[in-house]
Amino acid sequence: MATHQATEAAPNTGAESLGVTNGKIGMWTFLVMDAMTFAGFLAGYARLRWSPESGWPNPYTEFGVIGIQLTAFNTFVLICSSVSMVHVLSETIRGNMDRARKWMLATIIGGLIFVGIQGYEWTHLILDKWPYLVGGEGVDYNTNFASTFLSLTGFHGLHVSVGVIYNLIIYLGMKRGKIGKHNSSIIEIAGLYWHFVDLIWILVFTFVYLI
Q1: In the chain, what are the domain boundaries?
Q2: Cα distances (angstroms) measured from residue 32 to each of 27, 38, 153, 159, 193
Q3: Any keyword Transferase (predicted)?
Q4: pLDDT, greater one: 106 or 11
């Protein structure tokens, strides 16, 4: 009897023993480690850029005003998709799954637009500005700039692509009735990832395009 009572009095050691689902803890752990990786990329970028006699080109010279404006628009699209992700969770908690699916579809479209514009930008820069990267002719004074730019934005673009696939899987689960109000924490976890991707891009955009 004493053993039975002790068992009942023990704290819950199940999925929410800390008041937070294991899935959310796992996502936060992943995001912290991922943030360290991005911090390494940004630190490397800063080290190369502000080293003596680096010959670092002016962002306005490399991208042009139109290029920076296009990327600013792309940043706005990603921020809007983050806002729509908030509505996905909000409508799911309310049980309005039709509206939640529409907001999730808007989030996915926003991610696709972002990746598409970034692909267009890469194509323009590699073929027109940095042809030496693919064996063409050109002055390679900005090799460090090109390599760090492609590494940093490419790594982030990979995260956005994974996020789009992640959200698409959730959208299909919502459409089939497997994800809804009863397990809205799944959407909350996906939202953590998507907001993280949004925040990181704001930092990348500021460091690479504006400073």
Answers
A1: 22-51+65-210
A2: 9, 10, 19, 14, 11
A3: no
A4: 106
pLDDT in tens, 100-115: 999 999 999 999 999 9
Compute the CA torsion angle 35, 40, 44, 50 (nearest 10 deg): 60
Cβ–Cβ < 8 Å for 92, 205: no
Torsion, CA 81, CA 59, CA 47, CA 28, rounded to 10:
0
User: How far apart, in whole angstroms, are the C-alpha atoms of residue 197 and residue 38?
Assistant: 11
Q: Look up the pTM and report it.
A: 0.85
For residue 56, give the 3-state DSSP assignment: coil
pLDDT band of 158, cuts 50, 70, 90: very high
Rounded Cα–Cα distance for residues 73 and 37 (Å): 26
Rounded Cα gap, residues 174 and 157, in angstroms: 25
pLDDT of 12 strictly over 70: no
Cβ-contact 24, 188 below 8 angstroms: yes
Evaluate whether 114 touches 78 at the Cβ level (below 8 Å): yes
Tell me, what amino acid is at 64?
A: G
> Both tokens of residue 157?
């673009």
* CATH number for region 22-51+65-210: 1.20.120.80
Our measurement of the distance from residue 193's CA atom to the centroid of its chain's CA atoms, rounded to an integer in Å, reads: 7
Q: Helices in 95-142 by DSSP H: which ranges? A: 97-124
Say if residues 82 and 108 touch (Cβ distance below 8 Å): no
For 50, residues 6+ apart whose C-beta sits below 8 A from its C-beta are 56
Q: Which of 42-51, 130-139, 186-195 has the lowest mean pLDDT?
A: 130-139
